[in-house]
Every structure is written in structure tokens, then in C-alpha cells.
Specification:
This protein has a domain of about 35 residues. It is about 40% helix and about 15% strand. The strands form 2 sheets. Strands 1-2 form a two-stranded antiparallel ribbon. A two-stranded parallel sheet has the order 3-4. The longest helix has 20 residues. The chain starts with a helix and ends with a helix.
């Protein structure tokens, strides 16, 4: 569906499409095209061994493209914050398996996303407390 849509609008470059599945009929509906920027979908590929943004960089700069090998078993990129919100809205726990998960924020080799998340949460909580909201 994405390939057909991008071809029809003459899209060229890096992009992807988000879909939502209608549980009543089982059909997928396009929600949002992401063009000209990276998105969560590229990180899913990266944690599985293929760095799409770096491949695009290599293509634009005529640099040699490194050889990649997809990791097996495949990894699932998990955003625990969004997963929690989703579970609360659906009234259910996450259906993701416990094994082969890669956290969207915490990585021992790159702790800054987690640090930024924690700082933002502390800042938000302090603002609530200082404004008198609970």
C-alpha cells in the first residue's frame, strides 16, 4: 500500500507510512506519511542490524555502504511509555513477549535518551507541584 501511494504522488526520498488496523473489519488504514525525516520505523530496522538513515547518508555522499546482516532472532523496539498509555486505553496489558525487546530509551551504550526522558518527567512533576496541581 505504501509503495503504491508513494508512486502515485511521485514521492522520491526517504519516507514511510503509519497504519492503524481497524479491529472491526481487520483492514489497515493509512494514518500518517513521514517524509524527509527519520521515525520510529527506521530505529526498528537499526536495532535489527540495518541502519536506514546511514544508508541514505552513504547514498547521498557516495560513501561506501557497509555490509549489514539482519539480526536473528528479530528484536522488538518497545516504547514503555506509549505501551503503558496504550494498555490503559485498551484496558489490557501489553501483548509483547518479554524476550528480544529493545527499550526505546534505555541503552547502556547510549544512555542520553533515557536521561532526557527522566529529566523531562522530573521537570513536569516539579511544574505540577509548584502550580498546586496534583
Amino acid at each position: 500500500m505504501t509503495w503504491i501511494f508513494f508512486r502515485q504522488v511521485a514521492f522520491v526520498g526517504m519516507g514511510n507510512m503509519e497504519y492503524k488496523r481497524d479491529s472491526r473489519e481487520g483492514r489497515f488504514h493509512m494514518v500518517e506519511p513521514s517524509v524527509g525525516r527519520t521515525d520510529f520505523q527506521q530505529e526498528v530496522a537499526t536495532v535489527n542490524g540495518v541502519n536506514i538513515p546511514f544508508a541514505a547518508y552513504c547514498a547521498e555522499t557516495a560513501a561506501a555502504l557497509p555490509s549489514w546482516q539482519c539480526l536473528q532472532p528479530a528484536k522488538i523496539r518497545r516504547d514503555p511509555v506509549v505501551d503503558r498509555w496504550s494498555a490503559e486505553e485498551q484496558g489490557s496489558a501489553s501483548a509483547l513477549p518479554a524476550a528480544d525487546l529493545v527499550d526505546a530509551y534505555w541503552r547502556a551504550n547510549d544512555p542520553m535518551p533515557w536521561c532526557a526522558l527522566i529529566c523531562e518527567r522530573v521537570r513536569g512533576r516539579c511544574q505540577m507541584l509548584l502550580s498546586g496541581r496534583r
